[in-house]
Write a structure and sequence with these properties.
Order of helices and strands: HEHEEHEEEEEEEE
Distance between the termini: 68 Å
CATH topology: Jelly Rolls
Structural class: alpha+beta
Bound molecules: N-oxalylglycine, manganese (II) ion
CATH superfamily: q2cbj1_9rhob like domain
Length: 216
């Protein structure tokens, strides 16, 4: 006797993975928040590597602007950063950068964005530090296309502050406050979304960067 099965695929969501969810979100609304984008163990290992670099004195006060126009403006921005291309990165950071490379290729396949590379830094906001409302694209360059912020703060609670506030455009009016919880990835179109970092009560760690296209 043979069994027969009636397979009914109606109502089954199309095959999806975490990269295509981000691509869909970017296409639909220009931003995406993925809780648990990376596993807790990788988040913890990334944070440990960040703290090693910080304790070795690698972090510097972050500037605004680029090139000759760079300035330290603590009234605008109080974080301390280290650019990833200037240091030997540890195995967890390399694992995460490979993950971002897969995301980059997936976004290019799905959205034809022509993303060419990734530039990124680790950041620490000391308690009370903030980053006032800004746009990630520099005035003289449109090379930054997608901003990607990964948070490295296990056990972050609402009272800890430090939210990323995204200002949504007319089509989706309002503000979106995102807690910098460990493992959460936020992506948004760098030319569209003004945003700011609200002051935190505890040191706030992140790995932030940009998928770029070639400059015209
Ligand atoms: C930035 C920035 C957001 C965050 O570094 O440009 O806006 O949530 N970071 O850390
Ligand atoms: Mn920014």
């Amino acid at each position: 006797m043979s069994a027969s099965f009636a397979l009914d695929f109606s109502g089954t969501p199309p095959p999806t993975d975490k990269y295509s969810r981000i691509a869909d979100d970017l296409a639909r609304q220009g931003w995406s928040v993925q809780d648990g984008f990376i596993a807790d163990a990788l988040t913890a290992a990334l944070k440990a590597e960040a703290l090693l670099l910080r304790d070795a004195g690698a972090y510097r006060r972050a500037a605004v602007g680029r090139g000759d126009a760079q300035q330290l403006r603590p009234e605008l921005r109080g974080d301390r950063i280290v650019w990833l291309d200037g240091v030997d990165t540890g195995p967890a950071t390399q694992t995460y950068l490979r993950e971002l490379e897969s995301l980059r290729l997936s976004l290019n396949r799905g959205l034809f964005l022509g993303l060419f590379d990734f530039e990124g830094h680790l950041a620490e906001y000391p308690p009370g530090a903030f980053y006032r409302r800004h746009l990630d694209q520099h005035q003289d360059s449109d090379s930054r296309v997608v901003s990607c912020v990964l948070y490295l703060n296990p056990g972050w609670t609402p009272g800890d502050g430090g939210e990323l506030r995204l200002y949504l455009p007319q089509a989706q009016p309002g503000e979106l406050d995102i807690a910098p919880r460990g493992g959460t990835l936020v992506c948004f179109l760098s030319s569209v979304f003004e945003h700011e970092v609200l002051p935190a009560r505890k040191p706030r760690h992140s790995l932030t960067g940009w998928f770029r296209r070639r400059e015209a």
